[in-house]
Write a structure and sequence with these properties.
37% helix; alpha/beta; binds nickel (II) ion; 4-stranded antiparallel sheet; Alpha-Beta Plaits; elongated; Aminopeptidase; 403 residues
Length: 403
C-alpha cells in the first residue's frame, strides 16, 4: 500500500469505528449495526454467507479452489453504560455505549476483510468472518456456533483491545488468557421468628455470614500457589425489618479461574462449604450456577503462527498478563484451536468505564494483524497438504501405513 492509500485506509476505518460508536446497540439488539456491516461488506464486494442469525452476520473471502477454512471473529455489541467521554462522535443512545471497544473490533475486522479481498486469488483457502452479537451477555458465540458457522473451521482467531498496552504492541501467549466466569446464587433456608426469641427459629443470616467467611478459605487453602482463582460474594441479602429474623438469605457472586481442573475443584469445594456450613447451623442451602464461558485457552502451535503474523503486521509481540474477565470466544476454542490476542490501544480507562476510549491509530494495525494471521494460517494448513495433524495420519493410512 502506498502512503496515500494507507492514509485513506486508516481514515476509512476511523470513520467506520466512529459511526458504530455513535450508534451502539445492546446485546441481541444489534439490528442497525448488522445492517451497517452488511452494507460496508457489500461495498467491498465481499460475499455474505448464509447462516441463520437474528443479529450479527457471517461473510467469506477466498475458497474458489477449495482449501482449508479459518475464521476471524469480532464482537459487535455495546453495554448499558451512560457515556461520559465528551467525544464529538459519542453515543446518541442514552444509557448505551461501546464501553468495551467492540466498535474498534468490528472496524478492524472490516479492515481485515478489505485487505484479504485484495489478495483473494492468492488465498490458500477460505477466511470466514464472524461478526458476533451478544458477547457481553456471553450468548453470541453459542448462537454463531449453533448457526453452523464453525463447521469445517480449522483455526479461529480474535482479539480484544487492551487499554494498558501501548499502540504497536500485541499480547500473544499460549495457554490461558482469559478466565472462566462462573456466577453463583445461593439460597439459605432457615425459619423466621421474633428477633427477641431466636431460639424459636433458624437464623439464615447467621448461616450466610459464616458461609461468606468460610468461602474465603477456598482460594487460600484449596488452590495451589502456582494456580489462581477468585471467589467474590457480591450481594448478600436477608430480612426486611429490625425486629424479625427472616426465613431466607441470598448470596450472589462470581468465581474466576483459568484452568478447567481448578474450576471444577473450586466449584466442588464451594458447594461443600455452603452445604456443610448450612447444615452446621441447622439450615439448608441450595447453590445455583449461572454458567459463564469457560477459560479462553490459546493453542501453542497457533500462538507461534499468530506471533509471526503480528510481526509481519509491524507489531511488537509482548507476553500479556491474563485477564480475569470472561470472554465467550472460549466457546469457539472448544470447536477449533486458535488464538485470542490483546492488542494495545493506549486507552485512558479500563474496559466498561464510562469514559473508555481507544487510540484509533491502532485500527490499521489490528486490521493488518487479523488479515496476516488468517493468511498465515491458511498457508500453514495448505502446506500440510490441506490437512491437519489428524488428517495427515489418515493420508498415511490411505497409503497403506496404519498408525
Ligand atoms: Ni469486550
Amino acid at each position: 500500500m502506498s502512503n496515500e492509500d494507507a492514509g485513506a485506509f486508516t481514515d476509512r476505518l476511523i470513520d467506520i469505528r466512529r459511526r458504530l460508536h455513535a450508534n451502539p446497540e445492546l446485546s441481541g439488539e444489534e439490528y442497525e449495526t448488522t445492517a451497517a456491516i452488511r452494507e460496508w461488506l457489500r461495498q467491498a464486494g465481499i460475499r455474505i454467507a448464509d447462516y441463520p442469525l437474528r443479529t450479527g452476520l457471517v461473510a467469506e473471502i477466498g475458497g474458489q479452489y477449495g482449501g482449508p477454512v479459518v475464521a476471524l471473529r469480532a464482537d459487535i455489541d455495546a453495554l448499558p453504560v451512560a457515556e461520559e467521554t465528551g467525544l464529538p462522535f459519542a453515543s446518541r443512545r442514552p444509557g448505551v455505549m461501546h464501553a468495551c471497544g467492540h466498535d474498534f473490533h468490528t472496524a478492524a475486522l472490516i479492515g481485515a476483510a478489505a485487505l484479504l479481498k485484495r489478495r483473494e486469488p492468492e488465498l490458500a483457502g477460505t477466511v470466514r468472518l464472524l461478526f458476533q452479537p451478544a458477547e457481553e451477555k456471553a450468548k453470541g458465540a453459542a448462537q454463531v456456533i449453533e448457526s453452523g458457522a464453525l463447521e469445517g473451521v480449522r483455526a479461529v482467531f480474535g482479539l480484544h483491545n487492551k487499554p494498558d498496552l501501548p499502540v504497536g504492541a500485541i499480547g500473544i501467549k499460549p495457554g490461558p488468557i482469559m478466565a472462566a466466569a462462573d456466577g453463583f446464587a445461593v439460597e439459605v433456608d432457615g425459619k423466621g421468628t421474633h428477633a427477641a426469641m431466636p431460639e424459636a427459629g433458624l437464623d439464615p443470616l447467621v448461616t450466610a455470614a459464616h458461609i461468606v467467611t468460610a468461602l474465603q478459605s477456598i482460594v487460600s487453602r484449596n488452590v495451589s500457589s502456582l494456580d489462581s482463582a477468585v471467589v467474590s460474594v457480591t450481594r448478600l441479602s436477608a430480612g426486611a425489618s429490625w425486629n424479625v429474623i427472616s426465613d431466607k438469605a441470598i448470596l450472589d457472586g462470581t468465581i474466576r479461574t483459568f484452568d478447567e481442573g481448578v474450576r471444577t475443584e473450586v466449584r466442588r469445594r464451594f458447594e461443600q462449604v455452603v452445604d456443610g456450613v448450612a447444615a452446621a447451623f441447622g439450615t439448608t442451602a441450595r447453590t445455583r450456577w449461572t454458567g459463564g464461558p469457560p477459560p479462553v485457552v490459546n493453542d501453542a502451535r497457533w500462538a507461534r503462527v499468530a506471533a509471526r503474523a503480528a510481526e509481519a503486521a509491524g507489531l511488537e509481540v509482548v507476553a500479556p498478563k491474563p485477564s480475569p474477565a470472561g470472554e465467550d470466544f472460549a466457546l469457539y476454542l472448544k470447536q477449533a484451536p486458535g488464538v485470542f490476542a490483546f492488542l494495545g490501544t493506549s486507552g485512558p480507562h479500563e474496559w466498561h468505564h464510562p469514559a473508555f476510549d481507544v487510540d484509533e491509530s491502532a485500527l490499521p494495525l489490528a486490521a493488518s494483524y487479523l488479515a496476516a494471521v488468517a493468511g498465515e494460517a491458511l498457508d500453514e494448513l495448505a502446506a500440510a497438504g490441506g490437512a491437519g495433524e489428524g488428517e495427515k495420519q489418515d493420508d498415511a493410512a490411505a497409503g497403506g501405513v496404519r498408525v
